[in-house]
Amino acid sequence: MQRFPLLPAALVSLALSVSSAHAAEPPQAWLASWTASPQAVWRTDFLFPSNVPAVLQAQTVRQVARLSVGGPRVRIVLSNAYGKAPLRIGAATVALAASGSAIQPGSVRTLTFSGQPAASVAPGAPLVSDPVELSVPDLARLTVSIHLPQASPVSTFHWDGRETAWIAPHDQTQAARIDDGPGVQATTARLLLTAIQVEATAAGQAVAILGDSITDGASASLGMDARWPDFLAERLAPHGVAVVNAGISGGRLLSDGMGDNALARFERDVLAQPGVRTVIVLLGINDISWPGTAFAPREKRPTLEELTNGYAQLVAQARSRGVRVIAATLTPFAGALPGTPLSNYYQLDKDALRQQLNAWIRASGLFDAVLDFDALARDPAHPLRLLPDYDSGDHLHPGDAGNRALAEGIDLSLLFTNQSPRPAYKAVLR
């Protein structure tokens, strides 16, 4: 039998002291604190404009994102999910946001990738930056600036960012602001940036929300963090629980729409996000209502069985990763989108299918919990319609007040377990 030499007593003592010191400190981990799900840029003949240039070259993209929980270090994730060629990043920075495109003095940090200030994002892949020391508080707004030195076709984006972004000439990643010079373009789409992660304790957790335009924030006030996941983030931050928004406008459960179907993107947009322990699913209204409209004129509407089977597959994927699933019932939409090319989005037979799906969500017992958004958002006098105070005006999407009501109507104890309130993370700029 092979014998190994005994360690000297001094080394044993040192090893034990180091082990004890590490044991006294909670282990650290990365936590998703903000996300924007990637979409493929659509063709110019699509019903909605993409609002992004076809090519970026020798330009800087600057965008602002509000985190949910803070931490002492951050890192970003870029995406080339739908690109066909490597995407060259010349430089990138992160900073605490001021107003507009401005950053707070002294807060800019240069990002590196595997120790280098420049990098390439492989086709179809993400790119994770190295961690950077930047102490950020809960609900902080961060500014991320990315310089693209070479001709870069824009193939991956997030269409409805609910925030203004700026595209400026040259490398302005270190600039105090970039919206006041010549040649600057503005867009409300997200480009390249798909996630921001913070360093947290291993006990940190996130709630992901898989949804469509109601979750993505269509009709929420621009630049005001007024989507219902934003209001939920404000409620959960004191508990150390992050909220990541995996909504895509035009998103569907079973079929591709203005993004990949939910079953196809669930792994990337939810299960792969660090710290996700619970997912809320609010999906299905576009599956029900797109067929027969200008979006999908020749498409057949799914059956109730097809929809429920889709939900069951999401649950199976989530449970295999130890993630809890909470389903939200579909909100009323009578009279939706009047005076638009989608004025036939609502029909009585479509609403009948919505109500059948809602009844199944409530009674199936498949989910860890159910949020009855239908009951919360409907007008008691006209149950097929949104409550007027919650209606953005298009009779489909809640406005700011409706978004707040959805978030405030959630029993937080359903969203996490063994998580007591903690003091809000307060950053100190160093």
Automatic annotation (TrEMBL):
Domain of life: Bacteria
Pfam (any one): Lipase_GDSL_2
Signal peptide annotation: 1-23
Keyword Hydrolase attached: yes
SGNH hydrolase-type esterase domain sequence ranges: 209-405
Descriptive protein name: SGNH/GDSL hydrolase family protein
Keywords: Hydrolase, Signal
Gene Ontology molecular function, alphabetical: hydrolase activity
